[in-house]
Amino acid sequence: MTAMHSTEEHIATLRPKLVAFARLQLRDNTAAEDTVQDTLVTALEKHQTFSGRSAFETWVFGILKNKILERFRHERRYLAWQDEELSDEDSFENLFKENGRWQAISKPIPWGDPDQMLENAAFWRLLDTCLMALPANIAQVFTMRELMGMTTQEICEALTLSDANCWVILHRARLRLRGCIEKGWLT
């Protein structure tokens, strides 16, 4: 088997993961498919430059990350971001009593052993579902930060957000994901 043939097979097995990630980030099936296609073409064209300093999958996801950012910059597909104040449901103050303890209704439910959770395929499917249920702007910022590993400054530059607004959006994402996971996993 030639190295190119092996590379093509490896890329073919990555394609579903790449598409799922691009759909989550772009919220547009056509744009996701196009971006993944561009990523795969680049990976095939440049497979000889892969040095092996990281896993092959990480290298291809790095290409996808850059393609997504290029798409954001090129198309200026930014949502209308607003510096909104936190609503009552999002406010940290409403989660805690005056003495600093959790409000009974806001107290997180124990999820069990974290190591077992990470190995549970059903948990990952639920997390994917919860991510897809987030509003597009919130999901975009969250995935850029937590899945793409971008800094807050990079996100703010890419999406023309203020630093404060970015942190508000990340806070909302975490609260909504926690609620969704607790409803889907623990009920």
UniProtKB/TrEMBL annotation:
Gene3D superfamilies per UniProt: 1.10.1740.10, Winged helix-like DNA-binding domain superfamily/Winged helix DNA-binding domain
Keyword terms of this UniProt record: DNA-binding, Sigma factor, Transcription, Transcription regulation
GO molecular function annotations of the record: DNA binding; sigma factor activity
Domain named RNA polymerase sigma-70 region: residues: 12-77
Any Pfam family hit: Sigma70_r4_2
Biological process terms in GO annotation: DNA-templated transcription initiation
Coiled-coil annotated spans: none
Domain RNA polymerase sigma factor 70 region 4 type: from-to ranges: 125-177
Domain of life per record: Bacteria
Protein family (similarity comment): Belongs to the sigma-70 factor family. ECF subfamily.
Name recorded for this polypeptide: RNA polymerase subunit sigma
